[in-house]
Amino acid sequence: MRTEDKNKVFRELDDDKLLALVIYGEARGESYGGKVGVASVILNRLKKGGWFGKTIKDVILKPFQFSCFNDNDPNRLKLLAIAQNWDSFFQKDKALRECYEIASKFLDPNDITMLKDNVSGATHYKTKNCKAYWADKMQLVAVIGKHEFYSEEE
Q: What's the total number of domains in the chain?
């Protein structure tokens, strides 16, 4: 199945719901600041453009960038279920509501409480116990909870 087809249900979501889903899939067990860090990375990639993508959806759904969307990741099935039954999950899941609040605050330019980047422009992150081939080529700029955040060295 083509990537576009298997991600169709995700592409049909509004940007704020898709951003909330990736925050949920990558950091639902983290602190508020850790969730903001994941959202910051996505928006930093969007600002950078180029290879990362030109839209929120392009950045988030680019293959192999956010593990929660990988076919073999157990989070993917949960995210598919949420995407297909948003209202039901949203009512029951406090973490999903918090992720949505973060996503909405990041994306609403009229929100006076709009959130700011808390990871110094980082475009990558990984968990502390994960080995990533790219980490040695980047600068560690923040650590929040179980995540390390990196920016490309200039």
A: 1
